[in-house]
Amino acid sequence: MSAAAPDHDNLGARALTQRHKLRWWEPLPWLLALAFYFAFPRHLGFGTELLITVLFAISLDLALGYAGIVTLGHAAFFGAGAYTVGMLAHHGIWNEPISSLLAAAVVAGAIGLASGLVLLRTTGLTLLMLTLCTMALLEEAANLGHDWTGGFDGLTGIVIPPLFGAFEFNPLFPKVQYLYILAVLLVCFVFVRTLVYSPFGESLTGIRENTLRMHAVGAPVRTRLIVCYTISAAIAGIAGGLWAQANAYVNLSTLGLDRAATVLIILVLGGYGRLYGAFVGAVAYMVLAHFLSKLYPTAWQLGLGLMLVIIALFFRGGILGMGDAITGWLRRTRAAPKSSP
Amino acid sequence: MIENIASMLLGGMAAGMVLFIVSVGLSVTMGLMGFVNLAHGAFAMLGGYIIVLSMRNWGIGFTPALALGFVATAAISMVFERLLYSRLYKAGELDQVLFTIGLVFMFIAGLTVFVGPENQPVPIPAELRGQINLGIVQYRTYSIFLIAAGIVIVVGLWLGFERTRFGAQIRAAVDNRRMAESLGINIDRLFAITFGFGSGMAAIGGGLGAEFLGLDPQYALKYLVFFLIVVAVGGLGSIWGVFWASVIIGVLDFVLKKYIPQGGTLFIYVLTIMLLLWRPQGLFGKPS
């Protein structure tokens, strides 16, 4: 044991040194995702959409949940990634799946860096407006650049060659896509999990909780925020790239306010600022949307609105926060008889 | 040439006046309470519906309908403010954004169910239809009426803001809420009345603008970005700021739509981004 061994009698210190350790339930989502593959081979299209949404929500969680950057324009990066993959493939420049994803990450990250450099000087309403305007700007640009982006119709019939030259992509039976996206999601998730438990991630939480104090302790607040925003944008770009590959088309819907609002709702529904909120929120939202939005579109919208109002007013932590509250309450009621003499 | 310029200015100003009438309440409530109210457009939409439906179903005139829209929307929004909004004044922006987006969805769904998803045309009174001769140019009477109404409203609001006791209380609360509170100003009442008044103005704007903005359940989301841009460009809590921002954006949008029908909106977004980077507090806002 080194001299810096933590004081194990101190609850706070113990929580800090142990919190990055793998908990027993953490492999569960991945096992469930694999089980889905075998149990519902006919619904893998829905599954791929779900996994992509989870990845997109995780990218937003990094910026919004951990660093506290309130953005309404995260779909800008999703769309940038999707259009990168789509345009590279459509114009016959490059279409190998994995390197295309890297290109999507680089392009979206670059846009995140460029916009972050200027946007993150502002806060509050101005920041909100600027993120919204940046997204609207990209959407308009994609609409106007007809020769490159296909304009309003988008790019259809994107050809993606077999993965590793062996496993063929087939939009009708998306078995390969599902496993491929699951693998990409796992890699990105492990990266984000490592990041948020690192000192860097810790400083992001500090900035979220008290920016002034982080300035006072000498943390490079702006640099940290910009780096975080760039990483978040790159991951959103990967999610967008996956979307383009799985659907074999790209259109303006990847860049719209609808998508940005949906991912925000999903993240908040699950619980933001916690790693698994994206999973829970995406599953809850997508399953509900899948069954309700086609049958009763108006009731679905009404219910969604009501849910948002209730979450904002009473359950700031989303579904996972509610779960925490219930387990905390159970533990306290169970512990109470023991402590009383 | 002169006629061309004049008619473009008039058309743009008429659009700008509607933007102003809708957005002025948003600017004041945001400046006063620091509340990111994305549901403001929903109140404008609700007011528009009340105005249109009361004219069509009960056969009341244009002016009484506008008054009814103002009063009803103001009353409804004050109930919302006291019961729900007031719980979130101290919450973060994210909660406010979510709450108000949720409200927007509920308004959209509610109006779709009760009224229907289709566009509701506004019956404009006969004396406001047709053209009017202004000497240099013939122009649509309704647009001229909108410009006149906008100017009357901005002057009225400015006088109310600068010359009345209540206006002084609002200005005090915008500048320093705690100080105003310790001087004995009832901030809760001030918030509720200002919020209701702002939503009532939005209702009038919704009714007046329905002629060219249309009025369907998607209204609340469709024009939200425009209302927010006007407020952000003009500066929070500044009546003249919102007025000039509305006029600038209305005229720009009108001119750009005519000459570059494709890229016009793009240009407005670029300008807004550049302006907010240069002056985050907007054209007329005070630096925070």
Q: Describe it for me?
A:
The complex is a heterodimer of chains A (341) and B (288). With 341 residues, chain A is mainly alpha-helical. Chain A has one domain: Orthogonal Bundle (ABC transporter involved in vitamin B12 uptake, BtuC), CATH 1.10.3470. In chain A, 72% of the residues lie in helices and 0% in strands. Chain A contains 15 helices and no strands. Chain A has helices at residues 11-18, 28-39, 44-66, 75-90, 97-119, 124-144, 146-149, 175-196, 199-209, 211-216, 221-247, 257-270, 277-295, 297-313, 318-339. In chain A, α3 packs across α12, α4 runs parallel beside α6 and α5 (97-119) packs antiparallel against α11 (221-247). Chain A starts with 10 loop residues before the first helix and ends with a helix. By secondary structure, chain B is an all-alpha fold. Chain B has one domain: Orthogonal Bundle (ABC transporter involved in vitamin B12 uptake, BtuC). Helix content of chain B is 74%, strand content 2%. Chain B is built from 12 helices and 2 strands; from the N terminus they run ααααββαααααααα. Chain B has helices at residues 2-33, 40-58, 62-83, 93-114, 141-163, 165-175, 177-182, 187-213, 219-222, 224-234, 239-259, 264-278; strands spanning 131-133, 138-140. Chain B has a two-stranded antiparallel ribbon with strand order 1-2. In chain B, α1 (2-33) runs antiparallel to α8 (187-213), α2 (40-58) crosses α3 (62-83) and α3 (62-83) crosses α8. The chains are: A mainly alpha (341), B mainly alpha (288). The A-B interface holds A 64, 70, 72, 118, 121-122, 124-126, 128-130, 132-134, 136-137, 140-141, 144, 257, 261, 264-265, 268, 272, 298-299, 301-302, 304-313, 316 and B 30, 36, 84, 87-88, 91-99, 101-110, 112-113, 221, 225, 228-229, 232, 236, 262-263, 265-266, 269-270, 272-273, 276-277, 280-281.
Query: How many domains is the backbone of chain A divided into?
Result: 1
Helix run count of chain A: 15
Unreliable residue runs of chain B:
none
Instruction: Quickly give the CATH architecture of chain B.
Output: Orthogonal Bundle
Q: In CATH terms, what is the architecture of chain A?
A: Orthogonal Bundle
Total helices of chain B: the number is 12
* CATH class placement of chain B: Mainly Alpha
State the separation between the terminal residues of chain B, measured CA to CA. 44 Å
Radius of gyration of chain A using CA atoms only: 21 Å
Through-space gap between termini of chain A? 39 Å
> What is the CATH T-level topology of chain B?
ABC transporter involved in vitamin B12 uptake, BtuC
Helix content of chain B: over 70%
The helical percent of chain A reads over 70%
